[in-house]
Write a structure and sequence with these properties.
The chain is α/β, with parallel strands linked by helices. Helices cover 38% and strands 21% of the residues. An 8-stranded mixed beta sheet has the order 3-2-1-4-5-7-6-8, sandwiched between helices.
Length: 237
């Protein structure tokens, strides 16, 4: 497992991380929609990849108290903050340090049936997006679900203009493929089926899309790809 610091770290002022994320990205809207999509059940084993300060893990734990929760993030500082937050909320979760490409190894044999991934992929190169999704595919059980919330296709000039702020911070090379709508095709390339974009949430940083996909129960099964022209849920400002 790699240990070098080749990830995009949280804000230098870690205490402000949650506040800035909430203000810029309408966190309450997209996290709430993601929670409803994941639909955590008491029997679930759910992994939050790039779990950050544990906000979504806390939401999962409050919704399904008996669910087994795992969080993975490459930043040791942010994991310490997540541990304090979860302990204060009396929510049990296993936290591990690791990169997206490590997920398959870290979760091997864990029986994870749902994986959530929030605001991670837009930071990565296309190659790293592919490697990360392949690792996730190997980590989730057959029939298990992948749920993603990230900057996706920027459908309007306004959203594309607002997304420029993200590109100034994170660079155009890694973020533009997201803005061009690449994520569904990469999910399919990784082997997932029933890939669909389920919601679009406009924010002050551009639009965040929600995606859902399923790992087939049988390898090599005929893909069931959802019609991309279906109506999306658009959550207005």
């Amino acid at each position: 497992m790699t240990t070098e610091r080749d990830f995009v770290p949280a804000l230098r002022w870690l205490w402000a991380y949650d506040l800035v994320t909430a203000a810029d990205t309408r966190e309450h809207a997209w996290r709430g929609a993601l929670l409803r999509q994941v639909d955590p059940q008491p029997s679930d084993i759910i992994a939050d990849i790039g779990c950050g300060t544990g906000t979504f893990l806390a939401m999962l734990g409050r919704t399904a108290k008996s669910a087994k929760l795992l969080g993975i993030d490459p930043d040791e500082r942010i994991l310490r903050r997540a541990r304090r937050k979860l302990d204060a909320a009396r929510i049990a979760a296993t936290l591990e340090r690791g990169y997206l490409r490590d997920v398959g190894a870290l979760l091997a044999g864990a029986g994870v049936n749902k994986i959530a991934l929030s605001l991670v992929l837009h930071h990565l190169s296309v190659r790293e997006k592919r490697e990360g999704l392949a690792s996730i595919y190997s980590a989730v059980s057959p029939g298990g679900e992948l749920h993603i919330a990230d900057f996706g296709l920027q459908r309007t000039k306004v959203m594309l203009g607002l997304f420029r702020m993200v590109q100034l911070l994170d660079g155009r090379e890694n973020t533009q493929p997201n803005a061009d709508g690449i994520l569904p095709s990469l999910m399919e390339e990784a082997g997932f089926e029933q890939v669909q974009e389920t919601a679009v949430i406009p924010t002050l940083s551009g639009s965040i899309s929600l995606y859902k996909a399923v790992r087939p129960r049988t390898e090599g099964a005929c893909r069931n790809i959802v019609d991309p022209t279906q109506a999306l849920l658009w959550i207005d400002l």
